[in-house]
Amino acid sequence: MSIKSMLRELSGITCGMDNSLRKQGERKSGIGRGRSHIAPESPLPSVSSEPKFTQQSQWSNLPSELLLDIIRRVESSETSWPARRDVVACAAVCRSWREVTKEVVRTPEQCGLITFPISLKQPGPRDNPIQCFIRRERGSSTFRLYLGLSPALSGNASKLLLAAKKVRRATKTDFLISFASDDFSRVNENYVGRLRSNFLGTKFIIYDSQATFNSLISSRGQLHDPPKKALPRSFLRNYNVASISYELNVLRTRGPRRMNCTMHSIPVSALQDGGIAPTPDTFGYFCEGEPSCTSCIKGNNKESNSNIVAEESESCHNTSNPLVLRNKSPRWHEQLQCWCLNFKGRVTVASVKNFQLVAAIEPSEALPVEELDKVILQFGKIGKDIFTMDYRYPLSAFQAFAICLSSFDTKPACE
């Protein structure tokens, strides 16, 4: 007998078995009976049992030890984008894979890598900074933050981290920050926060879409146990986490801008040995008392809601001794006849926007000596509408991006 005839017989047998099984199923379910047939009463299957069946798959049944080993191998082998997206794909398989992936992936402070969107709200590494660049589009007044050394070196492999849009108003200017490159609405999940300036462009306030966890950090930098209740992220808007001020240049003298950043959500003790900076592990604001939070949800009046949001934005000022950053003073170069800073090759074009931020530590603070001159954030120009941004602990990518955006606003009173 030939192989083709054997395959025909096998296909005929399987078709016959399928038809017989289908007929048996129809008899059991009552399909094909006349109108006089009454199906026996039986309890209907619960609606919740169906999703449980659909969620189960062959991947969710892997042994926990094998699954942990697989994800660890993937996470250790993919250390740059776009290959890093394989780690994100592992978290999207099912719930068990997601929990193991979240357990394996470390924060940027620990590994120096950005993996999930929440990584943009977590502090950067303590040793080597995370190197990014900002592309400005003048026509649309948008700014996009990418992960990489520069557009020339990264090319198409550049990973978009955040985007911002400049919105001018009568007495102020807003920079709306979003995860998406073309969606800056404040009513969806892409909204991250905003930067608001005054009329002169000398004072800025950074608003976060969720309250930081500075209430969990004591004055000594120790972490308390987090509370258990949480609010949906859709109700969280505009928490004041930092303020930026530029000194007025009354005499119109030549020189770089002078700026100070007060990080209300980061205590100065975070720079001490063993200090902790706020590190959220999920999106959402955790709170102990319901009345102060649910009042924002139950309020029907828009004005009352805006007042409540303003009050909640002030609630982030509970850090008794916040971290203050100042721009590093440049030196005057006689041969080049300009102010110079050592950007270590990351800045190539002279600009008044270039700056380096260091901690403004008081003599009374018992901090290590190496923290005095350590550059926490540096920003500078490398080409037309291309700027580099390097940040490290205790700033997050969102906070560093918002500080750099303040340099793009017009400051006639500071120059």
From TrEMBL:
Residues 120-410 form the Tubby C-terminal domain. Pfam families: F-box-like (PF12937), Tub (PF01167). Residues 40-51 have a biased composition (Low complexity). InterPro entries: F-box-like_dom_sf, F-box_dom, Tubby-like_C, Tubby_C, Tubby_C_CS. Residues 20-29 have a biased composition (Basic and acidic residues). Gene3D superfamilies: 1.20.1280.50, Tubby Protein, Chain A. SUPFAM superfamilies: F-box domain, Tubby C-terminal domain-like. Belongs to the TUB family. This is Tubby-like F-box protein. It comes from Oldenlandia corymbosa var. corymbosa.
